[in-house]
Write a sequence for this structure.
């Protein structure tokens, strides 16, 4: 019983560590692409700009999109690549 409990605790800790792991990309991201922002589909929509995502071997452009904020007056803070650990890590965009 004690052995099973230790295995479960170890599994939970391992999962938590993997979830917080960051991928360090040695190649810097290209400059953001110029986007044509379409007409807003409604008054509650906010534009979230596109970004370059790392797919394991190269950067891939993810186009921007209009989204409805999770709450009134929420502001979108765009994700960005930050130079650290001898490479670049992705900092997720989030609502503030």
């Amino acid at each position: 019983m004690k052995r099973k409990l230790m295995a479960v605790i170890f599994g939970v800790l391992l999962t938590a560590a993997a979830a917080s792991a960051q991928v360090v990309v040695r190649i810097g991201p290209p400059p953001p692409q110029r986007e044509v922002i379409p007409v807003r589909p409604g008054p509650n929509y906010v534009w979230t700009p596109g970004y370059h995502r790392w797919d394991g071997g190269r950067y891939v452009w993810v186009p921007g999109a209009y989204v409805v904020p999770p709450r009134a007056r929420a502001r979108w803070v765009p994700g960005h690549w930050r130079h650290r650990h001898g490479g670049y890590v992705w900092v997720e965009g989030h609502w503030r």
